[in-house]
Amino acid sequence: MTETAEYTAIKILLIDDDQEICSICKDILDxxxxxxxxxxxxxxAIKLFQQNPYDIIFIDIFLPDIEGFDVLKYIxxxxxxxxxxxxxxxxxxxxxxxxxxxxxxxxxxKPFNKAEFLKAVKNAESRFFRKSNQNKSxxxxxxxxxxxxxQKNPTIEICAFGNLLLxxxxxxxTVSDWPSHKTSSVFRLLLINHKSSILIDTFIDKLWPDAxxxxxxxMLYSAISTIRYFLEPDLKHARDSKYxxxxxxxxxxxxGEFGNDYYYDVEDFEYFYNSAIEGxxxxxxxxxxxxxxxxxxxxxxxxxxxTFYPRQKLKDExxxxxxxxxxxxxxxxxxxxxxxxxxxxxxxxxxxIKGYELLIDAYLKSNRISEAYRVYQKCxxxxxxxxxxxxxxxxxxxxxxxKDN
Length: 405
Fold this sequence. Notes:
alpha/beta; Rossmann fold; 3 domains; 15 helices; 12 strands; 55% helix
């Protein structure tokens, strides 16, 4: 018999004066294993909210006593924990925009069917746990990063996960601020090789393979000059750069001491990940690493061949960190945390067999057989219909054996 772990169900509050809708939605949520309260007016909803820690709240905009927006404002002014979904039978773009501006995370138009309702619930649940884990990671990383170096508001900050962002003192340089795509590519190549020299020939081979040698050298020098200006706006002409040095037959970017002179999110991620791999408080450091990884490296430059290896290496490390955390939480009977990490794996890589396997394991361990089977079926359909590939036999056997137990 498979051990059944303790599972804390998501708590949902449904606020609507339409008793038929409340009854139908409650039946659906009960079947899915959620804890559900329903209430018909805003004043009673606020009282219930004061007495119970809800994770997700659905609010009808037009209530008999006060507006749903008033309930929304009260909740947001007292807690940022619950995910809030507004719904109405009079939905229009103005209401949707107002709902988003006032703090709702989603809007659902009436009438809705079971599939639409469950999709809104699952999306809200995913956002809730992502936010919850992010808050925990941020709290632990604030303490842990002090071990890297004494942070002193570094002059230069670089965010390379997602779209490239460079901050120099109070100035931000975004993707649109670079004078040319090639100039930003030179900077990204320097970042990938931070504190290592790059030959001029390497720059030309990767960025100007079809250009005349002399023209390529001029374009490279122009890009280097722009980058130096971005990093050191007060640098005088013909003076040596503190950060971007000319070395024999090439250039080297060296921003100084991490934390004191600069912050670079990729190096932060690698520090936490490698610390975990070395056995130094692995769970905390894996959690810190994934809190730094906001998106794939250089997200707006996915099609440059020379970025593929460093991007894939970092993504593989990110997935490994998530897998390690999911396994740890599953073994510790923290089922919902394991489910959340497994979902993050599948958000990053929807072909991850390990992600599907861990998600099924977590549902089975909490005796949520129907949800485990839905994940199994989704994975099976994905491989057979999307990729026209046979469903992984080991996962099929694993699920069947555990379900039979």
